[in-house]
Design goal:
PPR repeats lie at residues 625-659. This protein is an all-alpha fold.
């Protein structure tokens, strides 16, 4: 609970504000009462010798694991690696500590947490079956089962699995108990929570079967009705026929269809599902003993009618309420909302309030509009995106002498956020500090306000951090969207330490899908070309440490990103991190190796090449194939070790898979890089002719390029002239471009250019116009390097195309 004194002081400050400024975090009066910051002390010119005056490096906050959860995570990791698991007593204590913490703080169990708890309990069952209770008492298991029903939101399969495991174990202990202690505990104590979890997690029919099975023996006299969660579950699963069957089952046990049962189903469809057809169907269903629907049912149905503009059908309910001479203000409140929804103005609503007061006086009753009356009208205006009318209702409340309460400020925050008046929303939140908010109803809106402020670049950073600090002090839940928005904000501002603290505090509490949304923010920042390389690397490092579940394809994308940034050393580190993964699905495959080598070939980084090649030799999970050998040939050729590259050609030739078309092309390119390479090329060409392998344009151009690189001008001219006779292709820009680029020296290139312009003028002109076959590369000084394969060869998808003999 927040300090009442603090709330009172802030309320006084707000009420006595000197001026209104919706873009100011608090009023000028409040600013005056703020404690002044300490005077700035001039810097002391301390010695810097040996670095004594250096500022110590900031330490990141440790990961905020809930009690026991880190141990359960460790168990999962060790099981996946086949390592020795933590001691059973330590695991059991972690299991108990985790659920006790959830129960004490009434926090929901997240998807990933339930999954890890299931793994822990299952592991203890399998490995400690000889130990009595495997270190967990039945009371502790019942406590864990009862905690699962606190879960809100969408049903999770992991909760269903864990609840079943807990219930089955409690049943087993009850049936095999020797001293009878287990049977002394009412069965209802763990049956009711189990029914609730099953109803919530998609197994409402199973829950109904359990209720029917144990109705007479254990549930007939239960404090709370076991049928209510079954109704809610079946409604959520949209099983109308099964709802009918459930009512028939209840009749069999003489359980009447009361107005309370009618209320549970109708309100669910009206308020939760907002399904008008089903609401009508169940509202009109006859109630036992001719009873009428409760006032709560009428209010919920009329609210849905207002929302869906179903006024014709709702008029009947409205008239029945009026005919009953409503004597409570809550009924009048829905009457005011109905009138406003049908078009009555604010002035007309005020006159209706005056009529209500007068009727109350005639019957000696005190009927006066309260702040709930105003709040209901504001909520209606919010649903219609009408902030102007909402503000008029606030003014109407002031006219009746009604002071805004917490609900009023929450509604003001809601509509101001919706229309983009973030300054107004912050003002409403500041005023809310002076009120007691029941059940932390403001948390959802505060999270939305933070997200909206982060998206609006005009708002100041201090306002956002003020909200964040408030939530942190209250130890409130940060929604995944909030953490994602704050992560993006910290990244944009380069606040990496703050980002690490944020993720360590919150990211490990979310489920897989929620974590993926936050991870995507970091990934987009890392891949953004406008992000500096150093910032991209730091972002990647945070992503790698925090989101260990990142899949292989995403890691490959990050590796390619650093290759594109001309940082092959960083890309190789990313690849090395893949190699260190314990989970096989996250480890690099032969295709991943090939993609890494392709990037190294572009960078011509011999050190990275040697590192990755050593990894291949040490990786017993990789079976080298033609694609991988192609990539090795390509990389060694690009790094100036052509003879080494041709050694992999021999491996390909003698392999079961054999060479691909790309293998031949790469091998021929490698022949350009060493003395007498043309002789090796002729041997390769001879084998192609011998086995009658189809020769593509690219292969023939590569063959010409070998002779060109060794200054065999006449040989190249002859090959080009004989191209149509030899392989059926007329000389084109690819062939002439290869001849030109592979020829070393300016004098040689000039000679090729003069010959090509005379022998094939049309092709030569096309080459000059298009220029797309230029494949020579320049070093950092602008000097021409040894001729390298064209960029098309770096496309790894083309490296696996098989040769047809």
């Amino acid at each position: 609970m927040r300090s009442l004194l603090t709330r009172r002081v802030i309320r006084l400050i707000v009420d006595n504000e000197l001026s209104s400024n919706t873009r100011c975090w608090i009023s000028p009066a409040a600013q005056c009462l703020r404690r002044r910051p300490p005077a700035k002390i001039p810097p002391i010119h301390a010695r810097s010798l040996f670095g004594f005056s250096r500022k110590p490096k900031r330490e990141s906050k440790p990961v905020n694991y809930e009690p026991g959860f880190e141990t359960m995570l460790e168990l999962k990791e060790r099981l996946s690696r086949g390592e020795r698991t933590p001691p059973p007593e330590e695991l059991a204590q972690a299991f108990v500590d985790f659920f006790r913490s959830k129960q004490k703080n009434t926090l929901q169990v997240e998807d990933i947490q339930a999954e890890r708890a299931f793994t822990t309990l299952e592991h203890l069952q399998k490995t400690q079956n000889e130990a009595e209770g495997f270190w967990l008492t039945s009371e502790e298991l019942r406590m864990a089962l009862g905690t699962l029903r606190l879960t809100k939101g969408s049903p999770y399969k992991s909760h269903n699995k864990l609840a079943r495991l807990l219930f089955e174990e409690l049943q087993r202990r009850r049936e095999t108990s020797i001293d009878g202690k287990e049977k002394d505990v009412p069965f209802e104590k763990h049956l009711m929570p189990f029914v609730r979890v099953m109803s919530h997690s998609g197994d409402a029919l199973y829950a109904r079967d359990l209720v029917e099975k144990y109705w007479e023996s254990d549930l007939k006299h239960a404090i709370s009705s076991p049928w209510a969660p079954v109704f809610r579950g079946l409604s959520w699963e949209n099983k109308g026929e099964e709802l009918e069957k459930t009512i028939e089952i209840m009749k069999k046990y003489d359980i009447p269809f009361t107005n309370q049962t009618h209320q549970a189903i109708t309100i669910y469809y009206a308020s939760v599902r907002e399904d008008m057809n089903m609401t009508k169907q169940w509202f009109e269903r006859p109630i036992a003993n001719g009873r009428r629907p409760t006032s709560y049912t009428n209010k919920a149905v009329l609210k849905l009618c207002i929302k869906t503009k179903e006024f014709d059908w709702g008029d009947g309910i409205f008239k029945s309420m009026m005919e009953g001479n409503p004597e409570d203000i809550s009924s009048w409140n829905i009457i005011f909302q109905w009138a406003a929804a049908k078009g009555r103005s604010v002035d007309e609503i005020e006159r209706m309030m005056q009529v209500m007061v007068r009727k109350g006086e005639e019957r000696d009753m005190f009927l006066q509009p309260d702040m709930d009356s105003i709040n209901g009208l504001i909520e209606l205006a919010n649903s219609r995106d009408d902030p102007y009318t909402a503000e008029r209702y606030v003014a109407l409340g002031h006219k009746w002498g009604l002071e805004p309460n917490a609900r009023t400020y929450l509604l003001q925050m809601e509509y101001r956020i919706k229309v983009g008046d973030l300054g107004g929303a912050r003002t409403a939140y500041a005023r809310l500090q002076g009120e007691e908010v029941p059940e932390n109803e403001d948390l959802c809106l505060v999270n939305k306000l933070i997200v909206a402020l982060c998206a609006d670049k005009r708002e100041n950073y201090e306002a956002i951090m003020g909200l964040v600090e408030d939530l942190s002090e209250r130890k409130a839940r940060f929604e995944p969207d909030t953490v994602a928005a704050l992560s993006e904000l910290h990244l944009e501002r380069g606040e990496m330490d703050d980002l690490v603290d944020l993720l360590n505090t919150h990211a490990f509490q979310y489920g897989t899908e929620q974590r993926a949304a936050i991870c995507d923010i970091l990934l987009r920042h890392c891949l953004n070309p406008s992000t500096t390389t150093s910032a991209a690397w730091e972002t990647y490092s945070i992503l790698r440490r925090t989101f260990t579940e990142t899949d292989l394809s995403t890691r490959v994308l990050l590796m390619k990103n650093f290759f594109n940034r001309k940082r092959s050393d960083m890309a190789t580190h990313v690849f090395s991190h893949m190699r260190k993964q314990q989970t096989q699905a996250l480890r690099p495959t032969a295709d991943t190796y090939a993609q890494c080598l392709s990037g190294i070939a572009r960078a011509r980084d011999i050190e990275s090449l040697r590192t990755v090649y050593n990894m291949i030799k040490l990786d017993n999970t990789i079976e080298p194939n033609t694609q991988l050998y192609n990539a090795l040939m390509l990389a060694y050729s690009a790094c100036g070790e052509s003879r080494r590259a041709l050694a992999f050609w021999e491996d390909i030739v003698h392999s079961r898979e054999g060479p691909s078309y790309a293998s031949i092309q790469i091998a021929l390119r490698a022949c350009e890089g060493f003395v007498s390479g043309e002789k090796v090329a002729q041997e390769i060409w001879g084998k192609l002719k011998k086995f009658e392998i189809e020769v593509t344009r690219e292969i023939y151009a590569a063959y010409v390029g070998v002779f060109a690189s060794h200054n065999l001008f006449d040989k190249c001219v002859k090959l080009i002239k004989d191209a149509e006779k030899e392989v059926g292709y007329k000389p084109d820009a690819l062939l002439l471009g290869t001849f030109y680029n592979a020829t070393p020296g300016e004098e040689g290139k000039q000679k090729v250019q003069e010959w090509a312009s005379k022998a094939y003028p049309a092709v030569y002109e096309d080459l000059l116009r298009v220029g797309q076959y230029t494949v020579s590369q320049l070093d950092e000084d602008g000097k021409e390097q040894a001729y390298l394969p064209s960029e098309t060869l770096f496309d790894i998808d083309s490296l696996g195309r098989a040769v047809e003999p």
